[in-house]
Fold each of these.
Amino acid sequence: MVSLTQHLLSIDKEAYEKATRHTFLQQVGSHTIAPQHLHSWIEQDRAYTNGYTKMMGLMISRVALFPDQREWGDNDPHYDSAHAQRIFKTLAFAVSNVFRECQMFTDLLSRTPYAGFPQGGMKPWTSRYVDFHQKVARTAGYDLGEALVVLWAMEKVFLEAWLYAKSIQENKTAGSSGEQDPVHVATMQELIQNWTLDEFKDFVDECGELVNALSTTDPLRLKSLEQVYRQTLALEVKFWDMAFTEVTDE
């Protein structure tokens, strides 16, 4: 039987390819990305972490750890206290980890190659992504299905994307970074390492297990889960695009 995550990964392979094999990742992996473009991406990802934490907060606030804490109207027939606590534990880890990453981004932006660039603030597509996350967290079913799919999808994309960048980095010819600023090169290496650690892979796998535990017997519900998955892929592509330029609604 095909799992839900396998099904989702099969429905829009072209968009998934774009989200995990983007030019930004190619340039980071080959250490050829310009400092201003990496600065732009880091700045937006730091801005995005604020929305991520709000999404996690909304999801956590909706988790009923025990049966007597379930909201009025919660008719999820698959509710299980132990599973709810598993979800809570995963979300708590996500919050802790994104706080660490927010601090990491602040440190990276203070480094010599990037500190001199003007601060651009949150770009429109970053804001749109943040709004999307919060909307999904608020409107997801009582099992948090749509929100769990979004969480898994964006983390799965990040894992595969940075593994792709790492594969390019590992195939680089020794010394081929040329005259690149050593701090800039070290920053690219640090970013690649951060999202290819075994701990991160384990987290992504756990998110996948939570998604696979969702019921998909209702075709309308399955359609809803598919929709937020597709939207996440589209937004991830736009997010990489923003490293180079402003993106439009095309």
Amino acid sequence: MEEDLIKRRPFVLRAALFLFSALCSLCIFALFAMWLLVRPDSVLPDHWNPTRPLSITAPVTPVTHWQLFLAARDEAACRDVLARAGVGFSQLKEFTSGEHCGIAQRGSLSTLIGAQVAPVETRCSTALRLAMWEHHELQPAAKAHLGTDVSQLLHIGSYNCRKMRTSRGTSSGWSSHATARSFDITGVRLSDGRRLTLLKDWEGAGPEAAFMRQIWRGSCRWFRLVLGPEYNRLHADHFHLQTTGWGLCR
């Protein structure tokens, strides 16, 4: 037995040295990769570099949602991203209304990148996700299905100090609208003058319905909870786009 242990000892030692060497090599590689990423003259494009700030108009890559997460949680970074993209979001003083209502990162949203918005108070992180959706989903879908651009986003607001509404009535929980973490979209106005709404254009087999359904699916890439006409009758006329939640898309 003792002789077997002696014979196995060189193998165990070699295995331990190999693992230690591999771990050291991995650490060195990780440090070198980080050095390359944080260098001001890094050859890696910003939209592939997780250490660089988000650009709304940059191509979407595997690191885009990480950049979005960082920008959304930092008000200064969020406002800077919106400003660099040309989004009209003017800063307002934060306010609270009671224990459950108020708007942090408060501002007035008036334009996205390509579409106008009737001025509405919301939080910066909500406006940021809306701008990502408009640029990467809404406008491409309008071009593909309708041959034109979206000139205006139609909505029924963001902030509303109220409890959640359900098909059985008002619940005891507070709505995400109470903190402006949601945005309700009713339709769009197109550059050629057409006005599309969920009530009128959700159903059917034409390009208008195809457009509506594509932008609904696309919103699920940028918002954490999306409710629309397929969910219940309370959402027959609008998309409820929410920045919090666990990935529900209905």
Amino acid sequence: MFTGLVEALGRVERALEEENGRRFAIRWPGLDPSGPMAMGESVAVNGCCLTVVALDGEVFEVQAGPETLLRTNLGAKGPGGPVNLERSLRVGDRLGGHFVQGHVDTTAELVERRREGEWDFLRFRIDPKWTPLMVEKGSIAVDGVSLTLVDVGEDWFSIMLIPHTMAVTTLGTIRPGDRVNIETDMLAKHVRKLLGKE
């Protein structure tokens, strides 16, 4: 479980093809030595929950299987590619974002980006089967970043980014045509299933 509050902007050091997926070595700059990672812990990489399988100082390794590579933007990440990083939520931590599972639903394409004062407005195109799980002023995770939806259409949604978010996450540099990982609000998913809408 995560909060969608990105802790670090990491970089892919290596991306190695494996028989059933891909293995990534990722650098977490300034990883707190007083709270080192542990083998087997969960880390959200661009909002995708992955398991640490190797450690070497600031560099850790994770593996992504075929389903993960198909459903997320991680398959397009190579050496030097930036990724948002967040360690799992601990009991007693402040919950400043919203509950994020790290189970990416799909990807969306950025189709519009414009500056509005100090903020940036972003509009994304998405498969219309996902928009019923979105509501204006509701929560969404975009590349693992907890954000508030501005507007929702049949096959699109929009968000606004404050300067801090642009400075410390991958969302500060994405451009039209880029794809991002999307996790819709898990409460909306449960309500939809209970209402028999699936």
Amino acid sequence: MHMIKPHSSFVDVNDIRLHYLEWDPAKICQDPATANADNSFEQDSDDLPIVLLHGLNATADTWRLLAEQICSQRQLIAFDLRGHGQSDQPEDGYDLVTIAEDIISAMATLGLGQVALVGHGLGARIALVLTARHPALISHLVLVDCPLVEPKHWPGMTRERFIRDKETPDIYASEQHYLQTMQDEMASFWSPDVEAILKTYIRELPNGHVEEGLRTSYQRQMRESLWEDRALSYYSKLTCPVLLVPAADQPHPDEELPERLENADEFAAAKGYMAAQVARTIPRCTVLWMPDTTHEIQLQRPQLLAQAIANFVKE
């Protein structure tokens, strides 16, 4: 399969430089390598662009498999959030509001008006903050496996436990060791493309070891902001259509929140319960349940997620 290569560039915002990837339908249609590619979507010049925000310690590259499914139809722009990927790593500014305003400034600099906004994980919470602060700029909001409820309301969670979850960075003896660890976790959907994407998440140290690209101190700042942020106050005020995509099964009507969150099944059940509760408070909400799926939906089921997003933003 031919991998569609996005345009890679930088934009200056708020005294830092953000890296982004762009998939432009006009340029893709002119590319002889992709001109005959099979694609089920039809291009419409009136379609609004889609802006994509990755999760904690990921990069814009996380959207490559999904973007391939939509990019002949719409312009897509995926940013490396501050501290991630090829974007600058300032010492501060890792709260959700500052990061959201980075994206707003970048959109303005790039000449983007109203867009459809898609976020994954922590990027979804940033997308939520952005939409709540600038509702006129967002036509549709897609929250992919978003931590919808504040961690302070998670069963058994304390501020110290949540913020100190990453006391030390994950350091691997080599790139191959890192990739083998990831392959063990993602065995059911591992591929050379997934491997190439995950390589963008890490950096090599002088001794040949590799570590996560986002420094631990910056991760802690983000966790502190996530703990303080009042997500539950946003949902009833959202005016655009919202699509929730939890990596969970739809809970039974009488199902209750698990008392503890210690294993994957308990987390999945909690995500399903919280998604169902939040969906009831959003005025225009649709839920796409993704049972038997890991947090990395955009890597595991990119075609299904892309089709759902494409259909949703056409509404």
